[in-house]
Input
Amino acid sequence: MATTLPDLTPLENTLWLTLAGKALDYQARHPILRDKTAYDLVRRLDYDAGQFKLSASPVVGIAHRSLIMDDIVRRFVAGHPGAVGLDLGAGLDTRVYRVDPPATVEWYDVDLPGVTAARRLLLPERPHAHTVGADLNDPRWLDEVPGDRPAVIVADGLIGFLSREELATLLDRLIRHFPTGEICFNGYTRFHMWAARKYPGTQSVAPYLRSPGFDTPKDVERLEPRMKLVREIFLGREPEVAGYPWTTRLASFLTAWSTALSRKGTTVQHYRF
Ligand SMILES: C[S@@+](CC[C@H](N)C(=O)[O-])C[C@H]1O[C@@H](n2cnc3c(N)ncnc32)[C@H](O)[C@@H]1O
Output
């Protein structure tokens, strides 16, 4: 029987682009993230993942950055078994199932109310995993998240949708709420913000992009000085490049030597506070 989803707002509908990217990665000859749940969701909903006409490069970027952020979460919870995990702007991403943190970790998937309703409908319940339906710009959502434990916070595909002031306020609230923690997100430079408005594959999300773009991690540290860079990860320099389709592998090879050029590709920024 077909699943009827709640009506989603245009901003909430931005979740489909990344879900489609993960489903397409699963079908690739050499998948990177291997997210079968994303693929199964797309099939179950009869969703046309091909409609964005994503080329190999963005599919690889979406999948690889998620893999890297999963890894950051795994390492953090291995060292902090009593941690809190947060996935901000979680969409229909299934990070908590991929990472499978121990029962000592409380996990929170936060997204707007329509998305949260869709998650509850489509994804199985899991002990110690919670869905929070809220606008991240509303300070009250953090009230239901314990503030006395170290936190690992992921914002995968989110920060492009926040203005500079909204991001600053969100980071400030998070850092004041938790005693210590780590935050990671894919970088959005000014180039990325420009390119997302031009590239046909990202037209469905372009009207909702509000970030000015931050060209280097220093710009983020200036915005929130309590955040200290752990590592800026250039996807094109990571070992998974060996499994990229050859066009994307070649582009990575040609740009990996230069930090400025690498920043035009997908990056993951990893900070601690
Ligand atoms: C491109 S999708 C990424 C989804 C998911 N992280 C993934 O990797 O598949 C962006 C998500 O951010 C959410 N989002 C955007 N602005 C938000 C806000 N102010 N508060 C909560 N969620 C927001 C959208 O609803 C959407 O689910």
In short: The chain has one domain: 12-272. The longest helix spans residues 56-79.
